[in-house]
Amino acid sequence: MHPLRLSLALFLCCALFAGCAATRSSTTCPAEHGATWRELRSEHFRLRTDLESQEAARALVQLERYRRAVLLDWVQHFDPPGTTDVVLLQDSRALQTLIGRRALWAGRVTLDGAELLLSADQLARLDEVGSSTTLSPLYVLAYPLTWQAMPAEPRWLAEGLARYVQTVQLEKGGHVTLGDPQRAALKALRDYGRLLSIEQLWRWGVHAPEHAGASAWLWVHYLLSAQPQRFSDFRTRLHHGEEAYAAFQATFAGVDWNQEQQRLAAYAMKGDYRIVRTELPEVFVDPQLRRMEDGDVHRLRAELAAWSGQGAAAHQQRVREEAALAQQHDAAGFSTRWLAAAARPVAERLDAARQLARDFPQEAEAWQLLADMLELADGPAGERAEALTRALALAPQLPHTLNSYAWYFANEGADAARALEPARTAMRLAPHHPYVVDTYALVMAKLGHCEEARALQRRALTRITQGDPSAPRMSMRLEDYEQRCKPAGTATTASP
User: Fold this and answer.
1) pTM for the full predicted model
2) Fewer CB within 10 A of the end CB, N or C, for the chain?
Protein backbone atom coordinates (compact mmCIF):
# COMPACT_ATOMS: atom_id res chain seq x y z
CA MET A 1 0.00 0.00 0.00
CA HIS A 2 1.32 3.43 -0.88
CA PRO A 3 1.02 5.47 2.35
CA LEU A 4 0.49 8.85 0.73
CA ARG A 5 -1.78 7.99 -2.16
CA LEU A 6 -4.60 9.31 -0.01
CA SER A 7 -3.27 12.79 0.53
CA LEU A 8 -3.25 15.78 -1.76
CA ALA A 9 0.25 16.65 -0.66
CA LEU A 10 1.66 20.17 -0.88
CA PHE A 11 4.05 20.67 -3.75
CA LEU A 12 4.27 24.45 -3.51
CA CYS A 13 3.10 26.61 -0.66
CA CYS A 14 3.44 30.36 -0.50
CA ALA A 15 1.88 33.18 1.48
CA LEU A 16 2.60 36.88 1.80
CA PHE A 17 2.35 38.35 5.27
CA ALA A 18 1.12 41.70 6.47
CA GLY A 19 -0.25 43.13 9.68
CA CYS A 20 -4.02 42.84 9.77
CA ALA A 21 -6.75 42.22 12.28
CA ALA A 22 -9.02 39.24 11.95
CA THR A 23 -12.74 39.46 11.27
CA ARG A 24 -15.29 36.71 11.61
CA SER A 25 -18.38 38.08 9.85
CA SER A 26 -17.39 36.94 6.36
CA THR A 27 -16.24 33.47 7.42
CA THR A 28 -19.40 32.32 9.18
CA CYS A 29 -22.31 30.54 7.63
CA PRO A 30 -25.72 32.24 7.18
CA ALA A 31 -27.13 30.41 10.22
CA GLU A 32 -24.48 32.18 12.32
CA HIS A 33 -25.61 35.52 10.85
CA GLY A 34 -22.78 35.47 8.33
CA ALA A 35 -22.79 36.34 4.64
CA THR A 36 -24.34 34.15 1.97
CA TRP A 37 -21.70 32.03 0.30
CA ARG A 38 -21.87 31.07 -3.37
CA GLU A 39 -20.10 28.61 -5.61
CA LEU A 40 -19.53 29.59 -9.23
CA ARG A 41 -18.02 27.32 -11.85
CA SER A 42 -16.56 28.07 -15.25
CA GLU A 43 -14.55 25.95 -17.64
CA HIS A 44 -11.34 26.30 -15.65
CA PHE A 45 -12.30 27.56 -12.17
CA ARG A 46 -14.36 26.73 -9.14
CA LEU A 47 -14.91 29.93 -7.17
CA ARG A 48 -16.30 29.89 -3.64
CA THR A 49 -16.98 33.35 -2.27
CA ASP A 50 -19.01 35.55 0.02
CA LEU A 51 -19.27 38.24 -2.67
CA GLU A 52 -22.65 39.16 -4.14
CA SER A 53 -23.63 37.25 -7.27
CA GLN A 54 -22.82 39.93 -9.85
CA GLU A 55 -19.51 40.84 -8.27
CA ALA A 56 -18.61 37.16 -8.02
CA ALA A 57 -19.43 36.64 -11.70
CA ARG A 58 -17.15 39.54 -12.65
CA ALA A 59 -14.36 38.04 -10.52
CA LEU A 60 -14.78 34.71 -12.31
CA VAL A 61 -14.42 36.42 -15.69
CA GLN A 62 -11.30 38.21 -14.44
CA LEU A 63 -9.77 34.93 -13.31
CA GLU A 64 -10.41 33.37 -16.72
CA ARG A 65 -8.84 36.41 -18.40
CA TYR A 66 -5.71 36.11 -16.26
CA ARG A 67 -5.45 32.42 -17.05
CA ARG A 68 -5.71 33.12 -20.79
CA ALA A 69 -3.07 35.86 -20.47
CA VAL A 70 -0.71 33.52 -18.60
CA LEU A 71 -0.95 31.02 -21.47
CA LEU A 72 -0.30 33.51 -24.28
CA ASP A 73 3.49 33.25 -24.25
CA TRP A 74 3.51 29.46 -24.45
CA VAL A 75 2.45 26.97 -27.08
CA GLN A 76 0.04 28.61 -29.51
CA HIS A 77 -3.63 27.82 -28.91
CA PHE A 78 -2.75 25.68 -25.91
CA ASP A 79 -5.69 25.39 -23.51
CA PRO A 80 -5.16 22.49 -21.09
CA PRO A 81 -7.98 20.90 -19.09
CA GLY A 82 -8.26 21.10 -15.33
CA THR A 83 -9.80 23.25 -12.61
CA THR A 84 -8.25 25.82 -10.30
CA ASP A 85 -9.98 26.10 -6.93
CA VAL A 86 -10.30 29.70 -5.68
CA VAL A 87 -11.72 31.01 -2.40
CA LEU A 88 -12.35 34.75 -2.71
CA LEU A 89 -13.22 36.87 0.33
CA GLN A 90 -14.85 40.26 0.60
CA ASP A 91 -12.65 41.20 3.55
CA SER A 92 -8.90 40.58 3.42
CA ARG A 93 -8.79 40.43 7.22
CA ALA A 94 -10.83 37.22 7.13
CA LEU A 95 -7.85 35.23 5.85
CA GLN A 96 -6.37 35.20 9.34
CA THR A 97 -9.58 33.70 10.73
CA LEU A 98 -9.65 30.99 8.07
CA ILE A 99 -6.03 29.86 8.07
CA GLY A 100 -4.87 30.96 11.50
CA ARG A 101 -2.12 33.30 10.38
CA ARG A 102 -1.78 36.77 8.94
CA ALA A 103 -1.65 36.73 5.16
CA LEU A 104 -2.46 38.78 2.09
CA TRP A 105 -3.10 35.58 0.16
CA ALA A 106 -2.22 31.91 0.25
CA GLY A 107 -1.78 29.30 -2.44
CA ARG A 108 -0.68 25.76 -3.01
CA VAL A 109 -0.54 23.15 -5.75
CA THR A 110 -2.05 19.75 -4.98
CA LEU A 111 -2.56 16.62 -7.00
CA ASP A 112 -5.87 18.07 -8.25
CA GLY A 113 -4.34 21.41 -9.30
CA ALA A 114 -3.79 24.93 -8.01
CA GLU A 115 -5.69 26.26 -4.99
CA LEU A 116 -5.84 29.95 -4.11
CA LEU A 117 -7.20 31.91 -1.17
CA LEU A 118 -7.30 35.66 -1.60
CA SER A 119 -9.43 38.74 -1.13
CA ALA A 120 -11.32 40.72 -3.76
CA ASP A 121 -8.90 43.57 -3.16
CA GLN A 122 -5.92 41.32 -3.85
CA LEU A 123 -7.51 40.08 -7.09
CA ALA A 124 -7.98 43.69 -8.19
CA ARG A 125 -4.29 44.38 -7.50
CA LEU A 126 -2.75 41.42 -9.32
CA ASP A 127 -1.35 43.72 -12.01
CA GLU A 128 0.65 45.54 -9.35
CA VAL A 129 2.01 42.70 -7.24
CA GLY A 130 3.50 40.42 -9.92
CA SER A 131 6.62 42.47 -10.50
CA SER A 132 6.99 43.89 -6.98
CA THR A 133 6.75 40.75 -4.83
CA THR A 134 8.66 37.49 -4.70
CA LEU A 135 5.59 35.42 -5.56
CA SER A 136 2.02 36.26 -6.47
CA PRO A 137 -1.20 34.27 -6.92
CA LEU A 138 -0.46 34.12 -10.66
CA TYR A 139 2.71 32.18 -9.86
CA VAL A 140 0.61 29.43 -8.22
CA LEU A 141 -1.85 29.49 -11.13
CA ALA A 142 0.97 29.25 -13.69
CA TYR A 143 3.04 26.47 -12.13
CA PRO A 144 0.86 23.44 -13.03
CA LEU A 145 -0.02 25.00 -16.40
CA THR A 146 3.66 25.06 -17.42
CA TRP A 147 3.95 21.33 -16.78
CA GLN A 148 0.77 20.61 -18.70
CA ALA A 149 2.32 22.48 -21.62
CA MET A 150 5.67 20.71 -21.17
CA PRO A 151 5.39 17.42 -19.25
CA ALA A 152 9.16 16.85 -19.32
CA GLU A 153 9.93 20.38 -18.12
CA PRO A 154 12.84 20.69 -15.65
CA ARG A 155 12.30 22.43 -12.34
CA TRP A 156 14.39 25.50 -13.19
CA LEU A 157 12.30 26.19 -16.28
CA ALA A 158 9.01 25.67 -14.43
CA GLU A 159 10.14 28.07 -11.72
CA GLY A 160 11.51 30.66 -14.14
CA LEU A 161 8.42 30.66 -16.34
CA ALA A 162 6.03 30.84 -13.39
CA ARG A 163 7.89 33.88 -12.05
CA TYR A 164 8.05 35.41 -15.52
CA VAL A 165 4.35 35.11 -16.29
CA GLN A 166 3.26 36.37 -12.87
CA THR A 167 4.19 39.86 -14.14
CA VAL A 168 1.31 39.81 -16.63
CA GLN A 169 -0.81 42.96 -16.71
CA LEU A 170 -4.26 43.32 -18.24
CA GLU A 171 -4.63 46.67 -19.97
CA LYS A 172 -7.82 48.46 -20.79
CA GLY A 173 -8.77 47.89 -24.39
CA GLY A 174 -8.05 44.17 -24.37
CA HIS A 175 -4.25 44.09 -24.45
CA VAL A 176 -1.72 42.32 -22.22
CA THR A 177 1.84 43.21 -21.28
CA LEU A 178 4.29 40.64 -19.98
CA GLY A 179 7.91 40.75 -18.92
CA ASP A 180 8.32 43.62 -16.48
CA PRO A 181 11.45 43.14 -14.36
CA GLN A 182 10.70 41.37 -11.12
CA ARG A 183 12.18 43.71 -8.55
CA ALA A 184 12.10 41.16 -5.73
CA ALA A 185 14.16 38.71 -7.81
CA LEU A 186 16.71 41.37 -8.72
CA LYS A 187 17.05 42.31 -5.06
CA ALA A 188 17.57 38.67 -4.13
CA LEU A 189 20.35 38.32 -6.70
CA ARG A 190 22.03 41.46 -5.37
CA ASP A 191 21.78 40.08 -1.82
CA TYR A 192 23.31 36.74 -2.83
CA GLY A 193 26.00 38.53 -4.81
CA ARG A 194 25.93 36.29 -7.87
CA LEU A 195 23.76 34.67 -10.50
CA LEU A 196 23.64 30.89 -10.62
CA SER A 197 24.84 29.41 -13.90
CA ILE A 198 22.54 27.45 -16.17
CA GLU A 199 24.39 24.24 -15.23
CA GLN A 200 23.88 24.95 -11.55
CA LEU A 201 20.14 25.38 -12.15
CA TRP A 202 19.94 21.88 -13.57
CA ARG A 203 20.99 20.65 -10.12
CA TRP A 204 17.79 21.93 -8.55
CA GLY A 205 17.54 21.69 -4.78
CA VAL A 206 21.23 22.27 -4.11
CA HIS A 207 21.00 26.05 -3.68
CA ALA A 208 18.74 28.26 -1.57
CA PRO A 209 15.22 28.30 -3.09
CA GLU A 210 15.05 32.09 -3.49
CA HIS A 211 18.54 32.24 -5.01
CA ALA A 212 17.66 29.48 -7.48
CA GLY A 213 14.22 30.95 -8.23
CA ALA A 214 15.54 34.45 -8.90
CA SER A 215 18.31 33.06 -11.12
CA ALA A 216 15.81 30.90 -13.03
CA TRP A 217 13.58 33.93 -13.64
CA LEU A 218 16.46 36.01 -15.03
CA TRP A 219 17.71 33.21 -17.28
CA VAL A 220 14.22 32.67 -18.70
CA HIS A 221 13.81 36.40 -19.29
CA TYR A 222 17.18 36.58 -21.02
CA LEU A 223 16.70 33.49 -23.21
CA LEU A 224 13.32 34.76 -24.38
CA SER A 225 15.08 37.91 -25.55
CA ALA A 226 18.54 36.73 -26.68
CA GLN A 227 17.78 33.21 -27.95
CA PRO A 228 14.07 33.35 -28.86
CA GLN A 229 14.14 30.71 -31.62
CA ARG A 230 16.25 28.21 -29.70
CA PHE A 231 14.25 28.75 -26.54
CA SER A 232 11.02 28.25 -28.47
CA ASP A 233 12.42 25.05 -30.01
CA PHE A 234 13.44 23.81 -26.55
CA ARG A 235 9.93 24.33 -25.20
CA THR A 236 8.42 22.66 -28.26
CA ARG A 237 10.59 19.59 -27.67
CA LEU A 238 9.45 19.49 -24.06
CA HIS A 239 5.85 19.88 -25.17
CA HIS A 240 6.28 16.72 -27.23
CA GLY A 241 7.71 14.83 -24.25
CA GLU A 242 11.43 14.72 -25.05
CA GLU A 243 13.77 14.09 -22.12
CA ALA A 244 14.62 17.51 -20.73
CA TYR A 245 18.41 17.57 -20.62
CA ALA A 246 18.82 15.81 -23.95
CA ALA A 247 16.40 18.31 -25.53
CA PHE A 248 18.34 21.17 -23.98
CA GLN A 249 21.68 19.93 -25.30
CA ALA A 250 20.28 19.33 -28.77
CA THR A 251 18.62 22.75 -28.94
CA PHE A 252 21.52 24.77 -27.56
CA ALA A 253 24.36 22.80 -29.17
CA GLY A 254 27.44 24.97 -29.62
CA VAL A 255 26.35 27.67 -27.17
CA ASP A 256 29.16 28.98 -24.95
CA TRP A 257 27.33 29.31 -21.62
CA ASN A 258 30.17 31.19 -19.92
CA GLN A 259 29.86 33.82 -22.62
CA GLU A 260 26.06 33.79 -22.34
CA GLN A 261 26.31 34.39 -18.60
CA GLN A 262 28.50 37.44 -19.22
CA ARG A 263 25.95 38.71 -21.73
CA LEU A 264 23.18 38.05 -19.25
CA ALA A 265 24.96 40.14 -16.63
CA ALA A 266 25.17 42.99 -19.12
CA TYR A 267 21.49 42.47 -20.03
CA ALA A 268 20.48 42.79 -16.39
CA MET A 269 22.79 45.74 -15.78
CA LYS A 270 21.40 47.60 -18.78
CA GLY A 271 17.83 47.02 -17.62
CA ASP A 272 16.44 46.93 -21.15
CA TYR A 273 14.13 43.98 -20.55
CA ARG A 274 12.06 42.37 -23.27
CA ILE A 275 8.46 43.51 -22.71
CA VAL A 276 5.78 41.73 -24.72
CA ARG A 277 2.52 43.49 -25.54
CA THR A 278 -0.16 41.52 -27.31
CA GLU A 279 -3.88 41.34 -27.74
CA LEU A 280 -5.85 39.22 -25.30
CA PRO A 281 -8.49 37.07 -27.01
CA GLU A 282 -11.97 37.66 -25.69
CA VAL A 283 -12.97 35.32 -22.91
CA PHE A 284 -16.53 34.02 -22.73
CA VAL A 285 -17.80 32.78 -19.38
CA ASP A 286 -21.20 31.28 -18.66
CA PRO A 287 -20.97 30.72 -14.90
CA GLN A 288 -22.87 27.99 -13.12
CA LEU A 289 -24.04 29.43 -9.82
CA ARG A 290 -25.36 27.79 -6.68
CA ARG A 291 -25.89 28.97 -3.13
CA MET A 292 -23.66 27.09 -0.69
CA GLU A 293 -25.42 25.40 2.21
CA ASP A 294 -24.31 25.95 5.79
CA GLY A 295 -22.60 22.54 5.83
CA ASP A 296 -20.61 23.53 2.73
CA VAL A 297 -19.29 26.62 4.52
CA HIS A 298 -18.26 24.64 7.59
CA ARG A 299 -16.52 22.07 5.43
CA LEU A 300 -14.68 24.84 3.59
CA ARG A 301 -13.51 26.28 6.90
CA ALA A 302 -12.27 22.86 7.95
CA GLU A 303 -10.40 22.41 4.65
CA LEU A 304 -8.70 25.79 4.91
CA ALA A 305 -7.62 25.10 8.49
CA ALA A 306 -5.17 22.60 7.01
CA TRP A 307 -3.29 25.59 5.56
CA SER A 308 -2.41 26.88 9.03
CA GLY A 309 0.65 24.65 9.36
CA GLN A 310 -0.30 23.81 12.95
CA GLY A 311 -0.11 20.06 12.43
CA ALA A 312 -2.47 17.14 11.99
CA ALA A 313 -3.79 17.11 15.57
CA ALA A 314 -4.81 20.77 15.46
CA HIS A 315 -6.42 20.31 12.07
CA GLN A 316 -8.38 17.27 13.23
CA GLN A 317 -9.64 19.25 16.21
CA ARG A 318 -10.83 21.97 13.82
CA VAL A 319 -12.58 19.33 11.71
CA ARG A 320 -14.45 18.11 14.78
CA GLU A 321 -15.47 21.66 15.73
CA GLU A 322 -16.75 22.43 12.24
CA ALA A 323 -18.55 19.09 12.04
CA ALA A 324 -20.40 19.88 15.28
CA LEU A 325 -21.45 23.30 14.00
CA ALA A 326 -22.51 21.89 10.63
CA GLN A 327 -24.64 19.31 12.44
CA GLN A 328 -26.50 22.12 14.19
CA HIS A 329 -27.20 24.07 11.01
CA ASP A 330 -27.42 21.58 8.13
CA ALA A 331 -27.74 18.09 9.55
CA ALA A 332 -28.90 16.35 6.37
CA GLY A 333 -26.47 17.94 3.90
CA PHE A 334 -23.74 15.96 2.15
CA SER A 335 -20.94 18.25 3.36
CA THR A 336 -22.14 17.88 6.93
CA ARG A 337 -22.20 14.11 6.65
CA TRP A 338 -18.77 14.09 4.96
CA LEU A 339 -17.37 16.22 7.78
CA ALA A 340 -18.95 13.93 10.37
CA ALA A 341 -17.23 10.93 8.80
CA ALA A 342 -13.87 12.74 8.64
CA ALA A 343 -14.22 13.84 12.28
CA ARG A 344 -14.61 10.32 13.64
CA PRO A 345 -11.71 8.40 15.18
CA VAL A 346 -9.74 6.49 12.55
CA ALA A 347 -11.15 3.13 13.65
CA GLU A 348 -14.71 4.36 13.05
CA ARG A 349 -14.23 6.15 9.73
CA LEU A 350 -14.62 3.09 7.53
CA ASP A 351 -18.15 2.36 8.76
CA ALA A 352 -19.03 6.05 8.45
CA ALA A 353 -17.66 6.13 4.88
CA ARG A 354 -19.68 3.05 3.97
CA GLN A 355 -22.86 4.66 5.26
CA LEU A 356 -22.07 7.91 3.41
CA ALA A 357 -21.68 6.05 0.11
CA ARG A 358 -24.99 4.23 0.70
CA ASP A 359 -26.81 7.47 1.49
CA PHE A 360 -25.21 9.56 -1.30
CA PRO A 361 -24.50 7.12 -4.16
CA GLN A 362 -24.31 9.94 -6.73
CA GLU A 363 -21.48 11.75 -4.93
CA ALA A 364 -18.02 10.86 -6.25
CA GLU A 365 -16.44 12.15 -3.04
CA ALA A 366 -18.40 9.61 -1.00
CA TRP A 367 -16.99 6.71 -3.03
CA GLN A 368 -13.48 8.19 -3.01
CA LEU A 369 -13.63 8.56 0.77
CA LEU A 370 -14.76 4.95 1.06
CA ALA A 371 -11.89 3.79 -1.17
CA ASP A 372 -9.41 5.81 0.90
CA MET A 373 -10.70 4.40 4.18
CA LEU A 374 -10.61 0.86 2.79
CA GLU A 375 -6.97 1.37 1.86
CA LEU A 376 -6.12 2.63 5.35
CA ALA A 377 -7.96 -0.26 6.96
CA ASP A 378 -6.63 -2.84 4.49
CA GLY A 379 -10.26 -3.62 3.71
CA PRO A 380 -11.70 -6.11 1.22
CA ALA A 381 -10.11 -5.75 -2.22
CA GLY A 382 -13.37 -6.28 -4.07
CA GLU A 383 -15.13 -3.55 -2.10
CA ARG A 384 -12.26 -1.13 -2.73
CA ALA A 385 -12.28 -1.89 -6.45
CA GLU A 386 -16.02 -1.23 -6.56
CA ALA A 387 -15.65 2.07 -4.67
CA LEU A 388 -12.90 3.27 -7.00
CA THR A 389 -14.91 2.26 -10.06
CA ARG A 390 -17.96 4.16 -8.81
CA ALA A 391 -15.85 7.22 -7.96
CA LEU A 392 -14.21 7.25 -11.39
CA ALA A 393 -17.55 6.93 -13.18
CA LEU A 394 -18.82 10.02 -11.33
CA ALA A 395 -15.59 12.06 -11.53
CA PRO A 396 -13.74 10.97 -14.70
CA GLN A 397 -11.57 14.10 -14.82
CA LEU A 398 -10.43 14.36 -11.20
CA PRO A 399 -6.70 13.57 -10.96
CA HIS A 400 -6.85 12.18 -7.43
CA THR A 401 -9.57 9.72 -8.38
CA LEU A 402 -7.89 8.77 -11.65
CA ASN A 403 -4.56 8.21 -9.91
CA SER A 404 -6.07 6.18 -7.07
CA TYR A 405 -7.88 3.96 -9.57
CA ALA A 406 -4.80 3.45 -11.76
CA TRP A 407 -2.50 2.75 -8.81
CA TYR A 408 -4.86 0.17 -7.35
CA PHE A 409 -5.44 -1.78 -10.54
CA ALA A 410 -1.79 -1.64 -11.68
CA ASN A 411 -0.43 -2.66 -8.29
CA GLU A 412 -2.83 -4.53 -6.02
CA GLY A 413 -5.45 -5.28 -8.65
CA ALA A 414 -2.90 -6.80 -11.04
CA ASP A 415 -4.69 -5.40 -14.08
CA ALA A 416 -2.36 -2.86 -15.70
CA ALA A 417 -4.37 -2.79 -18.92
CA ARG A 418 -7.38 -1.54 -16.96
CA ALA A 419 -5.20 1.10 -15.30
CA LEU A 420 -3.67 2.44 -18.52
CA GLU A 421 -6.27 4.93 -19.72
CA PRO A 422 -6.95 6.47 -16.27
CA ALA A 423 -3.20 6.78 -15.71
CA ARG A 424 -2.80 8.54 -19.07
CA THR A 425 -5.64 10.92 -18.28
CA ALA A 426 -4.15 11.72 -14.89
CA MET A 427 -0.82 12.46 -16.59
CA ARG A 428 -2.51 14.85 -18.99
CA LEU A 429 -4.24 16.67 -16.14
CA ALA A 430 -1.50 16.61 -13.48
CA PRO A 431 1.96 15.93 -14.98
CA HIS A 432 3.37 18.22 -12.26
CA HIS A 433 2.68 15.77 -9.47
CA PRO A 434 5.28 13.10 -8.64
CA TYR A 435 2.65 10.57 -7.53
CA VAL A 436 0.89 10.75 -10.89
CA VAL A 437 4.18 10.26 -12.76
CA ASP A 438 5.09 7.43 -10.36
CA THR A 439 1.80 5.67 -11.06
CA TYR A 440 2.15 6.02 -14.81
CA ALA A 441 5.68 4.60 -14.58
CA LEU A 442 4.31 1.61 -12.67
CA VAL A 443 1.64 1.02 -15.33
CA MET A 444 4.26 1.20 -18.10
CA ALA A 445 6.49 -1.25 -16.23
CA LYS A 446 3.63 -3.71 -15.69
CA LEU A 447 2.82 -3.53 -19.41
CA GLY A 448 6.44 -4.27 -20.34
CA HIS A 449 7.47 -0.75 -21.46
CA CYS A 450 10.63 -0.77 -19.43
CA GLU A 451 12.51 2.17 -20.94
CA GLU A 452 9.50 4.45 -20.67
CA ALA A 453 8.92 3.33 -17.07
CA ARG A 454 12.53 4.10 -16.18
CA ALA A 455 12.41 7.57 -17.76
CA LEU A 456 9.12 8.39 -16.04
CA GLN A 457 10.37 7.21 -12.65
CA ARG A 458 13.45 9.39 -12.96
CA ARG A 459 11.16 12.32 -13.71
CA ALA A 460 8.96 11.52 -10.71
CA LEU A 461 11.97 11.61 -8.40
CA THR A 462 13.00 15.06 -9.66
CA ARG A 463 9.59 16.36 -8.57
CA ILE A 464 9.31 14.83 -5.13
CA THR A 465 9.44 17.31 -2.27
CA GLN A 466 12.24 17.08 0.26
CA GLY A 467 11.31 14.85 3.18
CA ASP A 468 8.42 13.10 1.44
CA PRO A 469 8.24 9.60 2.98
CA SER A 470 7.32 8.14 -0.42
CA ALA A 471 10.76 9.00 -1.82
CA PRO A 472 12.56 5.80 -0.67
CA ARG A 473 9.88 3.56 -2.19
CA MET A 474 9.99 5.53 -5.43
CA SER A 475 13.77 5.15 -5.52
CA MET A 476 13.43 1.40 -4.99
CA ARG A 477 11.00 1.21 -7.91
CA LEU A 478 13.50 3.04 -10.09
CA GLU A 479 16.19 0.52 -9.14
CA ASP A 480 13.79 -2.29 -10.02
CA TYR A 481 13.01 -0.79 -13.44
CA GLU A 482 16.71 -0.27 -14.15
CA GLN A 483 17.54 -3.85 -13.26
CA ARG A 484 14.75 -5.25 -15.37
CA CYS A 485 15.42 -3.05 -18.41
CA LYS A 486 17.54 -4.44 -21.19
CA PRO A 487 20.45 -2.26 -22.28
CA ALA A 488 19.28 0.55 -24.51
CA GLY A 489 19.96 0.17 -28.20
CA THR A 490 21.46 3.61 -28.38
CA ALA A 491 23.38 5.71 -25.87
CA THR A 492 21.31 8.00 -23.70
CA THR A 493 22.28 11.32 -22.19
CA ALA A 494 21.75 11.62 -18.47
CA SER A 495 20.81 14.90 -16.90
CA PRO A 496 23.18 16.33 -14.32
Assistant:
1) 0.87
2) C
